[in-house]
Amino acid sequence: MKVQSPKPYRKPCKKSQVSMEAALVIGFSTLILIIFLGAIADDLIRATDDQYKKLLEDLADYIEGEATVALASADGYYHSFTLPVTLNGYPYRALILNSTQLGTDYSEIVIESAQPNIGHEVVRVMPMEFKGNIVRGKNEIYKHEGNATVRPYPLTDEQKTDCSDPPPPACEVTSIVTKQEC
Q1: Burial of 63 (0-12, 13-18, 19+ CB in 10 A)
Q2: Residue 166: cis peptide before it, omega within 30 degrees of 0
């Protein structure tokens, strides 16, 4: 009788272990990549948001400077200036709240974000002698009888025709630039 020798012991195949390790490494690397990209995206959003707020503040400073020069000048002062339609592609609203509207002894320049998810607003307090309406686009400022008044540079026919009185809810008089925006 022939004695059969036991079959030699075979080690389990390492292929499954290698593929399992590769899957774990790929999964872990993907997780690290997602966390890294999320952190970068958050920083970019924060930087963009800060840049937008700085642009709003710069615009408020510019308007305040125009008003300060007009208030310090003699009656008869006149100057025209242009506000950009957007701030580096970001929409905004600009308005002047007169002392009579506020019921105070001062007026306010308000520059605010027109984006629904960004609530930035910049306010500059001005003397009550500063009043008027301001629009994106061309404006003029003049001083008469001690009051500095801002008003839109004469509107073009295109701006006048579509902006009825009172304007539709989506069209604020303080933000009109063109017929298409109204």
Answers
A1: buried
A2: yes
Does 120 have pLDDT greater than 50? yes
Q: Please report, as a single letter, which amino acid is at residue 35.
A: I
- Beta strand 130-132 with 147-152 is parallel
How far is Cα 38 from Cα 31, in angstroms, rounded to an integer? 11
What confidence category does residue 72 fall into, taking pLDDT thresholds of 50, 70 and 90?
very high
11 φψ region: left (φ > 0), alpha (ψ -120 to 50), beta (else): beta
In terms of phi and psi (left: phi > 0; alpha: psi -120 to 50; beta: otherwise), the region of 103 is left
Secondary structure of 53-109 as H, E, C letters: HHHHHHHHHHHHHHHHHHHHCCCCCEEEEEECCCECCECEEEEEECHHHHCCCEEEE
pTM over 0.70: no
Give the per-residue pLDDT at 128: 84
pLDDT band at 11 (very low <50, low <70, confident <90, very high): low
Give Cα 17 distance to the centre of its chain.
53
Q: How far apart are CA 66 and CA 80, in angstroms?
A: 9
Phi/psi of residue 9, each to 5°? -70, 130
